[in-house]
Amino acid sequence: MAAPLPPSRPRIPGSGLAKGLAVTLRTMTRKTVTAQYPDVQPELPPRSRGVIALFEENCTVCMLCARECPDWCIYIDSHKETVPAAAPGGRERSRNVLDRFAIDFSLCMYCGICIEVCPFDALFWSPEFEYAETDILELTHERDKLRAWMWTVPEPPALDPGAEEPKEIAAARKTAEKLEAQRAKEAQQAQEAQQNQEAQQNQEAQQARATQQDQKEEGEE
């Protein structure tokens, strides 16, 4: 058998109205803050998702972003060009050339999957958000507009001082240190060889002077 519920406190008439009036009084005594937009631009968080910017030089037309987009709002067109051989007797190569890269922002849900899956860092988040249009058809922005937004992309935040060094930077630093050590070793070997050559030349010059002195003494006798 269930235990009986504890008796509830008697409700004071008008307590709800008093609480509501207290909230109203507290709000009335606070200073109002009005954002004077668009005269004053808002301060956006550093990772704001405004629009997607395109760094066209890094795009290899792999189509990975278009295939992974859940809304199918990315449109890419390209063609192949033949690149002549770099050296005589070499083989010609073909490469993809980007003709069109457009994003329909009326369909985009700003999930960021296209930016995450891009293997060559060709897509970035831009904090720009003022791109409203009167016609929904004009929300499909072509690569020229996406390229212009690239210059509004903020710099990446600084790494945590205690964070692990990125693998790419560590590999590049180790390679640079190895090359520097090799160059220093080659310079030291060249310096030692030059010193040995100078010492040998001095020794030969001393021997030549000694021989001349001996011949001169023999002639005088």
What does this structure look like?
By secondary structure, this protein is an alpha+beta fold. The protein has helices at 15-28, 64-68, 113-117, 143-149, 167-220, and strands at 51-54, 74-83, 93-104, 123-126, 140-141. The strands form two sheets. It has a three-stranded antiparallel β-sheet. Strands 1-4 form a two-stranded antiparallel ribbon. The longest helix has 54 residues, at 167-220.
Labels describing this entry:
3-stranded antiparallel beta sheet; 221 residues; two-stranded antiparallel ribbon; 5 helices; alpha+beta
Strand elements, count: 5
Q: Mean of the pLDDT scores?
A: 86
Instruction: Bin the strand percentage.
Output: 5-15%
Adjacency order of strands in the biggest sheet = 2-3-5
Structural class: alpha+beta
Helix content: 25-40%
Order of helices and strands: HEHEEHEEHH
| N- to C-terminal distance | 143 Å
Summarize the biggest pleated sheet: 3 strands, antiparallel
Write the layout of secondary structure elements.
Elements: H1 15-28, E1 51-54, H2 64-68, E2 74-83, E3 93-104, H3 113-117, E4 123-126, E5 140-141, H4 143-149, H5 167-220
Antiparallel strand pairs: 1-4, 2-3, 3-5
